[in-house]
Specification:
5-stranded parallel sheet; globular; Rossmann fold; alpha/beta; DNA replication; Helicase, Ruva Protein, domain 3; 9 strands; 24 helices; ATP binding; Zinc Finger, Delta Prime, domain 3; two-stranded parallel sheet
């Protein structure tokens, strides 16, 4: 180590650090997680020699579209140390593998369609496609975000895409496949890369954390995987932040503080408080969550997730609960699913959706009562709110003996709503009936009209003519 390196160890560490999403990018198809149908199809295609002239890779961000494109380009141009040909099962690094994976191979051209959208760029691509590859077997064109190409660029690509030279392969990647013309899609073999399951992504994060020498709690990794929303890149970015935030140790509390999440137990406490009709308690709990660092919009989103989890458990049974949920969370979900009937969860779901929209549009990010409690009018303004908490807190009394036939709180709420609807309908019908009666009376009265000379005269109505 030189004297300069010894004097500035921090600068050397910062310069050598790479993002986890780049550092742990898959190098072989076996490392590509969550895309087993794609890997199986490509393996059979390469084994039988049925290699398409163009591939279309679609999916959300961070699921491996660009990585898969580079791996396919590596498989097409693979030359093993023992003379192996094109295959996706390469155990050893070939002649062109390193240059392709680093994006510097002359015969593997990567183009960003977001910055090269015009017909001139496609014309240059078509002109270069007629030349033989320099050193590799195929000349592979990887066009990322292909939906950004203009209409003229797509039209200029059609002929070459349908009948390309034998040494040319196209690989397209896009997140907006609906914006790609059908004429282009029909000339490609399409693969839809799906979101990564939470369990699979959690296991991947555990392996990465172990490689980085970081102690991580499984519950904390599950939170990171859930926040990644099926994207490996997003999850690894959050993991990188969590490692720096926790000084080498990842815990549930630090992850919640980092992401601005609320404790799931407190979310279910808030949900029960709201369902009981306790407006003051709900607002106090929401304000406390906000002071503890939880984002108001994220709290409403967590409430919507809790309502959805309970609804799914109520409809499909406890086996449908998210496997990533902890034991305490599973217990709360099963308990709420047993206590309340299915109609009771319709209004909370709609109100949570309305609350998320209002929170996104609110000029002030703090949770004021005006927009939060307005999302729960059924529970706050019902005639008999005491019935609902009785149904939530009388589980022990129900087990002790036979229950007298009575209507539960949610049933009373629903009956109240039905009565209000019937009352509005009666008023509407009465007003229409009165309007028709007034119109008939007006039609029966004599009304003044003008004759040909311009003088006014009385014209009798139907009632006078009948007399």
């Amino acid at each position: 180590m030189s004297e300069n390196q010894a004097q500035h160890p921090t600068q050397n560490a910062a310069a050598s650090h790479a993002a986890l999403a780049r550092k742990y990018r898959p190098q072989v198809f076996a490392e590509l997680i969550g895309q087993d149908p794609l890997v199986r199809t490509l393996r059979n295609a390469f084994a039988s020699g049925r290699i398409a002239q163009a591939y279309m890779l679609t999916g959300v961000r961070g699921v491996g579209k660009t990585t898969t494109a580079r791996l396919v380009a590596r498989a097409l141009n693979y030359e093993g140390p023992h003379g192996e040909g094109a295959t996706i099962d390469f155990d050893e690094e070939g002649v062109h593998c390193r240059a392709i994976l680093e994006g510097r191979h002359l015969d593997v051209i990567e183009m960003d369609a977001a910055s090269h959208t015009g017909i001139d760029d496609i014309r240059d691509l078509i002109d270069s496609a007629h030349y033989k590859p320099n050193t590799a077997r195929y000349k592979v064109y990887i066009i990322d975000e292909v939906h950004m190409l203009s209409k003229q660029a797509f039209n200029g690509l059609l002929k070459t895409l349908e009948e390309p030279p034998e040494h040319v392969k196209f690989i397209f990647a896009t997140t907006e496949v609906r914006k790609v013309p059908v004429t282009v899609l029909s000339r490609c073999q399409r693969f839809d890369l799906k979101r990564i399951e939470i369990e699979t992504l959690t296991d991947h994060l555990a392996r990465v954390a172990k490689e980085e020498g970081t102690e991580a709690e499984p519950a904390a990794l599950a939170l990171i995987a859930r926040a990644g929303e099926g994207s490996v890149r997003d999850a690894l970015s959050i993991l990188d932040r969590a490692i720096a935030f926790g000084s080498g140790r990842i815990e549930v509390g630090t992850v919640r503080e980092l992401l601005g999440l609320a404790d799931r137990g407190r979310i279910f406490d808030l949900l029960e408080t709201v369902l009981k009709g306790d407006a003051g308690g709900a607002l106090s709990a929401l304000g406390q969550l906000n002071r503890d660092g939880a984002e108001p919009g994220q709290v409403i989103t967590d409430l919507a997730d809790a309502v959805h989890a309970v609804t799914v458990a109520k409809a499909a049974g406890p086996g449908s609960i998210d496997p990533a949920a902890g034991e305490a969370e599973r217990g709360r979900i099963e308990d709420l699913a047993k206590r309340l009937s299915m109609p009771c969860w319709r209004a909370p779901g709609r109100c949570c959706s309305r609350g998320m929209t209002r929170c996104a549009q609110a000029p002030v990010r703090s949770p004021p009562p005006t927009w939060f409690w307005s999302g729960w009018p059924m529970w706050a303004t019902c005639r008999r709110p005491a019935k609902l908490p009785a149904s939530l807190t009388a589980s022990a009394r129900r087990r002790s003996g036979p229950r007298a036939p009575r209507r539960s709180g949610p049933t009373c709420l629903l009956l109240t709503c039905h009565r209000l609807r019937r009352l509005r309908l009666r008023r509407l019908l009465r007003s229409r009936r009165d309007a028709r009666a007034r119109g008939a009376q007006h039609h029966g009265r004599a009304r003044p009209v003008r004759c040909a000379s311009g003088h006014r005269k009385r014209k009798s109505g139907p009632a006078q003519r009948s007399r």
